[in-house]
Design brief:
The chain has 135 residues and is mainly α. The protein is built from five helices and no strands. It is elongated and about 55 Å long. It starts with a helix and ends in a 12-residue tail after the last helix.
Length: 135
Amino acid sequence: MANKKLEQLILQLENYLECWKQFNYFINLARTKKYGPEDENQFLEIKSVITQELELILAAVECTQPSKEDVHGLISTAPSIRYLSEMNEGALRGVENQWHKIYIGWQSILGQLKVQQRQAEAEGGFRFFGWKKQS
């Protein structure tokens, strides 16, 4: 039962990371200045999914990096592709750097969860380190 929960959380985090990759795609699209209304709508949708899934993930896993504030800060920095496209190159690189730090943080958490999964499989039991206790 608990192994199933861990497996589902790993899947959820892998899907979440795909959303982060799409977010980066839109940062790069802004740099090219070749985007349209549909791209803006998709960007808004990705930001919505990132923000909502963040809450679900943080409810299941205790983590300090990346923090909720880090994620919200980056999302707030990028209200639209148009806004990003109007940034100077230095500011856009700052957004990319912030994205990269958050992305690597999530990759690290995913790696930790996979280690826990392997340990649980090897032990035949299940121990969670960093999981929030269910009431």
